[in-house]
Amino acid sequence: MAAAESLSLRDYGPSPGSHSHDHFQVLVGLDGVLELEVEGRGQRVGRGDGFLVVPGDRHDFESTGGSRCLVLDTRVGLWSLCAPSPRDARQVGSLAQYLAQAVLKRQPLATLHGPGLLLEAWAPQASAASRRRIDWASLQTWAQARLDQPLTVAQLAERAHLSPSQFALRCHEAHGLSVMQWLRSQRLARARQLRALGVPVAEAARRTGYRSPSALTAALRREAH
To answer: Which UniProt keywords are given for this protein, alphabetically ordered (predicted)?
Structure first.
């Protein structure tokens, strides 16, 4: 997989399948019943049921009457702390129904945050206390030194040693902002500092990644109102 995490909807039928993979796979039943055999152990995934397949486990699957599941393929290591079944099955089932609609409607924010929300609902309560701390001051310094570049969510998440979805969730928790909103606030704050030091607007725009001096001027004007 190229991406660290991917949410999808998958339909299963009576034709049996069998494989293993090098990433975690999270299955939550939406309709019907999926029959699994994982390393020789039987497992049924019906509506609202969840099951975690760990990397390397061979699993056979079929669904005699047909079934549909929300599937998360993920390489995020925090899933290694999780049990095969979710801590709160009801919460995970309700969340999966919502995320299934988000996937169908191509809602980008829901599908971005969905993997992190699934992990939060699935994981033991104790894992929240051991979450990696984000040094926001250090990250801000790192980002402000590169504001002339087209920074991405993935780059910032990598710097914080988190997946993009987990980083986005933590950014919203800490600042009430999306990652790109946080990044825009850093650009604007730095541009404002440069202008206060007498740096010409064109140079300030170049250093902070604005597409033109007029774009920076407009952003500063919006902030003032």
So the answer is: DNA-binding, Transcription, Transcription regulation
